[in-house]
Design a protein that fits this description.
By secondary structure, the chain is α/β, with parallel strands linked by helices. Helices cover about 55% and strands about 5% of the residues. It has 24 helices and nine strands. The strands form three sheets. The protein has a five-stranded mixed sheet. It has a two-stranded parallel sheet with strand order 1-2. α3 packs parallel to α5, α7 runs parallel beside α9 and α21 crosses α22. The relative contact order is 0.07. GO terms for molecular function: mRNA binding.
Length: about 525
């Protein structure tokens, strides 16, 4: 059985970065960077505050036009207005890009950009940075990269007489896109452009984003070079964001000793760096990832209270409680199927945390349970019955059908975005444990439901996070780690089932119909689908 916490992508390489003009002498963490960076300095800079983007005062007519666009409620109105009322002020088109993003219509961005080209307007850095920023928000990375190269590398649609180069905000935006994709090679390319080609000094935001890229790609060597650079640059402040970003690199790379050494270094009096709950949660996650569960419990029970004496840390943080519950799940995962007493102990510990700490009021009122926590609850029963998965069916059905204590939105069905009438089995965000269980459960006990929902056609499974979610490319075909995990599961069945990629949606895979027909014919309903070893 595949690990509930197995990293989906691992890349080991040694990358040497050369910095000019000064020679060096001396993110699953994206959520943290989003909260700490975008809400403060980066968001302000993109909006043009603090002198990062030079603002020009537009004429009154342009201000009125911008205000009108901000009030529009459909993209058709915006495009029609821009076509019928052409403007020579790029700020009008900047506002249009932003408004379309607010309306959740990023596919219209190319039309707005094309209208600027038709007007033969000279682009400015404010428009370029904002456009690249919103493309990154909507994961339009191919177009983002193409426009960056057009504007700044090939100098298309920009001034031929006035130097037009990217600034630190531009490069940081591109690196952030690489962080989402887990593309460390492209991120290093942008970082070298910043330092070597444009002679710009990376700021704290850029370096922290680079550390996030390295964490997502498990590239510790490059991260340590960047970290050393940050320490030796006087203008870069090593703060809680920086230290947590580097700790996250070690956590993702399963380098627990280096992670703890850096934490201890940061707490020494002579170079003290204040930390917070996110820092401690990063440590706990790293220890879990490295299978050091007992060390994680010790850190929570003994070290965090000590750290809270000189740091602003809420020891009752829900992150800590959630990680404790995950620790017991991980313990169950590591145990042998015959160690029933230990499995029962950790299962009970998980339930105690779930119902007494995470959701303490389920006996008093109807409580809404987060779907991710619901999946963990399901996994706890699957792991409890790892000797025979069928024994978990009754418990899982009871949890999903229970109405009196709590409500939830957990569901393995979703609608195909390319065909609104087509349902899919959505294992996109599920762990391998729950994915494998529900595949067995549906194919063993819910065959009629599958035939009805798929109209006797191929059974379709959504098993990729998206086009840019650390996908492994094999023979030109996008292959997500989830798809590989499902393939390995089907190899364990009495009748192995092959997967075929859907012709309309690359994130969807179809169960081979001949294999499914043979499986239904030879394996009776209710009989264990797994091979007898």
């Amino acid at each position: 059985m595949e690990s509930f916490f197995e990293p989906q992508f691992k890349c080991k390489r040694r990358v040497i970065i050369y910095f000019r003009p000064q020679t060096i002498k001396k993110s699953q963490y994206d959520i943290f960077l989003e909260q700490q960076h975008e809400g403060n300095e980066l968001k302000k800079k993109i909006q043009g505050r603090n002198g990062a983007l030079v603002k020009t005062v537009p004429p009154p007519q342009s201000r009125n036009v911008r205000l009108l666009i901000k009030q529009m409620t459909t993209i058709d109105d915006i495009i029609e207005f821009l076509q019928n009322t052409p403007s020579q002020d790029t700020s009008v088109y900047t506002v249009a890009i932003k408004r379309c993003s607010e309306l959740k219509q990023p596919n219209v961005f190319p039309q707005i950009i094309q209208l600027i080209y038709q007007q033969n307007l000279q682009l400015d850095i404010i428009f370029c940075n904002n456009t690249l920023h919103y493309l990154g928000i909507w994961n339009k990375f191919d177009l983002q990269k193409k426009l960056f190269e057009q504007w700044f590398i090939h100098k298309q649609f920009t001034s031929n007489t006035i130097p037009f180069n990217p600034d630190v905000i531009t490069i940081s935006t591109m690196i952030k896109g690489c962080s989402k994709k887990g593309d460390v090679k492209q991120a290093l390319y942008y970082f070298q452009l910043l330092v070597n080609d444009y002679n710009l000094k990376p700021n704290g935001i850029t370096c922290n984003t680079m550390l996030s890229v390295c964490a997502n790609s498990c590239d510790m060597d490059s991260a340590e070079i960047i970290w050393k650079t940050m320490q030796n640059e006087a203008h870069i402040q090593i703060d809680v964001i920086a230290i947590t970003s580097m700790l996250n690199v070690y956590a993702q790379c399963r380098e627990s000793k280096k992670m703890m050494d850096l934490l201890n270094y940061s707490q020494q009096h002579e170079h003290f760096i204040s930390i917070n709950e996110i820092t401690c949660a990063t440590i706990m996650s790293g220890l879990i990832r490295d299978n050091k569960i007992d060390e994680m419990f010790d850190f929570y029970q003994n070290e965090i209270p000590k750290l809270s004496l000189k740091n602003n840390i809420d020891i009752n943080c829900k992150r800590f409680i959630n990680l404790k519950s995950i620790g017991h799940l991980k313990k169950m995962e590591m145990l042998n199927e015959n160690e029933s007493d230990k499995l029962s102990y950790h299962h009970q510990q998980f339930l105690n945390i779930f119902f007494n700490e995470l959701y303490p009021n389920t006996n008093k009122a109807l409580i809404s349970i987060d779907e991710r926590d619901m999946e963990k609850l399901i996994c706890s029963y699957v792991l409890l019955h790892k000797k025979d998965w069928i024994d978990a069916v009754q418990d899982v059905e009871r949890i999903l059908d229970q109405k009196s204590n709590f409500s939830h939105s957990f569901n393995y069905w979703s609608i195909d975005i390319f065909n609104k009438r087509q349902l899919l089995l959505n294992f996109n965000l599920m762990s391998a444990i729950s994915t494998n269980f529900f595949l067995r459960y549906l194919m063993t006990f819910k065959r009629d439901e599958l035939k009805y929902e798929f109209k006797n056609g191929p059974i379709k499974v959504l098993c990729g996070k998206g086009q840019y979610s650390k996908i492994i490319k094999k023979g030109g075909i996008c292959e997500s780690p989830k798809k590989k995990s499902i393939e390995n599961e089907f190899k364990k069945w009495k009748i192995p089932i092959r997967l075929e990629q859907d012709q309309f949606n690359q994130a969807v895979w179809c169960l081979n119909q001949d294999d499914v027909t043979l499986f239904f014919k030879l394996v009776p309903p209710g009989e264990d689908c797994l091979k007898w070893w």
